[in-house]
Amino acid sequence: MSEKTSLGLDTSVLVRLLVGEPEKQAKKAEEALDSISKSGGKVFVSDLVLSETYFAL
Fold first, then answer.
1. What percent of the chain has pLDDT over 90?
2. Domain span at 51
């Protein structure tokens, strides 16, 4: 991801990032966010995703 990228996270990815499980998928999500951050891209989380994540946790 060498160009600026915008990404909208969904609930499952956000939960994986917060709890670190399953470990392999959480690591991939972290790597993707790191790559986007380094390229100057943006990550978005909608109100619905935040609400679902709160409920899931």
1. 77
2. 6-56
